[in-house]
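Re: the 77-residue chain
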Amino acid sequence: MRTKVHVDRRALLQHARLLTLRAAVGLVLMMAILGHVLVLLLGALDALLTAWLGVPRLSSTTRRFVQVVRETWEADL
């Protein structure tokens, strides 16, 4: 003879919703932290690159890159 166990479906559903909410909040929080870390690292890399190359040299390199992209864009059209 088996004993019947009462399963409270509402409580299980509420628990599942709570776990899903916690997982979603954790995912958003981790993405926000990762985004901030990535932006800080890229900013630091940009500062180091600018300090190493110098602003005028970096500016002329960027200007040449933009010019090549613009010429390529016009040639593709």
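The mean pLDDT is 90.
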